[in-house]
Amino acid sequence: MNQENRNMVLFLAIAALILVGWPIVAQTFWPAPKRPAITKTTPVADKPVTSAAATPVVDTAKTNRDRGLVLAETPRVTIYTPSLKGSINLKGARIDDLVLLNHRQTIDKKSPPERLLSPSGTEHSYFAGFGWAGDGIASPDKNTVWAADAPALTPGKPVTLRWSNAQGVSFQIKFSVDADYMFTIDQSIGNGSAAPVTARTYGLVSRTGLPVHPDSWVNHVGPIGVFGNGANYDIGYPNLQGTDRSFFGSVFGANVKPGPNYFDNKGGWLGFGDIYWLTALIPDQNAQVHAGFRAAGDTFQADFATTPVKVQPGKVARQTTRFFAGAKEVRLIDKYQDQGNIVNFDKAIDWGWFRIVEKPIFYYLDFLFRLVGNFGVAIILLTITIRGLLFPIAQRQFASMAKMKAIQPKQKAIQERYKDDKPRQQQEIMALYKAEGVNPLGGCGPTLLQIPVMYALYKVLLLSTEMRHQPFVLWIRDLAAPDPLTPINLFGLLPFTPPVFIAIGIIPILLGVSMYFQFKMNPAPMDEAQKQVFAIMPWMLMFVMAPFAVGLQLYWITSNVLTILQQRLLYARHPEMLVATPKTPAKPIPKK
User: Fold this and answer.
1) Which is nearest to 149 in space by CA: 169, 173, 123?
2) Which residue among 28, 124, 163, 557 has the highest number of C-beta atoms inside a 10 angstrom radius?
3) Which residues of 134-172 are buried (b: 16+ CB within 10 A; e: fewer)?
4) Which residues fall within 8 angstroms of residue 41, CB to CB, at 6 or more apart?
5) Distances (CA, A) of 271 to 89, 133, 221, 320
């Protein structure tokens, strides 16, 4: 078998491996965005979750009941802001009923708002609780019914809950909320007894069941916290249940022990993060806390407790906690970090290693969206900007390609002359490059620069709540999701959903076509195997990119179109690149 045939066989083997294995690899490392969906969980037993912080145990009901019935069973204080709607349960002083008014469950305009918190005893229960844990005194617990001084909590109008025990010790919890997603909880204990009392504040977030979107290598979903200088993304739900998440969890979360994970720290914050939503307990940033995560079955809890304080008779002790419950909107998260002095709160969004590229891209893309009102158009404008910035480099790329084209006859002659002496062949070719002033890697610059940009845009589309459910035109109603139309099922006319591997949408097909014409404008390679690679590459990449967000595909298509226009312009400056390379006959090796 000659070299060209061996190259072809190797290429076909690699192509088959990519086409078969790519969906598995992509789902592991770069999971395709999904529309919100409701998954069912099996009701868990009434298992208490014990805490090293000595906070009250959290349990879940043995059966899942209708949310409306559960909400009607206990007295409540209404919560209403421009961003939130819900209620505080006066039994247990829990924020356990919350929907996000500015975010809907699906792309349907009539879809209900996204529900974040739900009371214990309902499916997917998810709530926050606050209180005091005392030593030797009767403290309020999950069954305590508090008295409220107002029927509703709104921005600028706080609500105070009160409860006193038989010993004369009084407890108060004052809830305040801003116009977005931040609650402030001021807790106080007044000692009306004749002896000192010792108590500490606590806060907890409890959730039952696993989230819709799984944890992945590119984006952490699950327990998250800042204990010290950086964010902890290592702890996953399986870790808390006593098992490791995966092979990657064992590698990147090597310091995570199975079961409860707790930390002693000053300030910080902790909670649970989904792709788009976040609940976070934020204790006083100057307070020493014992904080961490634990689980019992499918019930997971994040909690903290402050250092116990001794309250003398007639004295009052106070402690302030903040609680974030809402969407991970980038500008808002950054504002809370900067103006609210919350250390590393922006780490709630797992930007990853390319953060230095991703955040500027997000802010610029968000600026363009606010300017034009359409995220698809904003992505096109972003692409034009990036291509404009890379234009000088592209010019040098084409100049280098022109030189490579010009010396191809000489290079081919060397290959034929030393075809039986590969080391000498490479030596002579490198000498030719040096003599002609050619850099064989000179055309890789724009491509290499595009890689972090592409990955950054992928992360922005995956993580940014602002781009969730954003339409473009016609059938593209969610730029953060894959193209929903595919000719495989006649664009939805046939009653079946094709596998992801073959569900090639219209936009991915247009991507393949644009790449085909872009490749056609490049100088044809001299090696036949390379020609076959370039011929099939656009269609392979079409399959590879099909499961990704339409917004990412739109960026690539626009980039390809601009590249074609740029190539036509630069070909006009370097017409020698369009001249067919004459085949140079091999020169005989001189006899010694």
Assistant:
1) 173
2) 557
3) beebebbebebebebeeeebbeeebbbbebebebebebb
4) 123, 124, 208, 209, 210, 298
5) 20, 20, 11, 17
Q: What residues pair up with 204 in beta bridges, in sequence order?
A: 129, 303
* CA–CA separation, 504 and 488 (whole Å): 7
| Amino acid in the structure at residue 38 | I
DSSP string, 83-102: SEEEEEETBTTEEEEEEEEE
Cα pseudo-dihedral 255, 261, 266, 269, rounded to 10: 100
Judge contact between 521 and 587, C-beta under 8 A. no
Residue with tokens 């409540």: 76
pLDDT tens digits, one per residue of 397-411? 766 766 777 777 888
Q: Is residue 41 predicted with pLDDT exceeding 90?
A: no
Q: Which residues make Cβ contacts (< 8 Å) with residue 550, sequence separation at least 6?
A: 472, 476, 478, 479, 480, 481, 482, 483, 505, 507
Q: What's phi and psi for 348, nearest 5 deg?
A: -60, -25
Residue 169 identity (one-letter amino acid): V
Identify the three-state secondary structure at position 303. Answer: strand
Residue with tokens 């904080």: 291
Q: Tens of pLDDT along 103-156?
A: 998 888 888 999 999 999 898 899 999 998 887 788 898 899 999 999 999 999
| Residues 173 and 90: beta-carbon distance below 8 Å | no
**pLDDT tens digits for range 56-107:** 555 555 567 889 999 999 999 999 999 999 999 999 999 999 999 999 988 8
pLDDT value at position 5?
Answer: 41
Residue 416 tokens read as: 């034929």
Q: At what angle are helices 375-406 and 408-417 packed, to 10 degrees?
A: 60
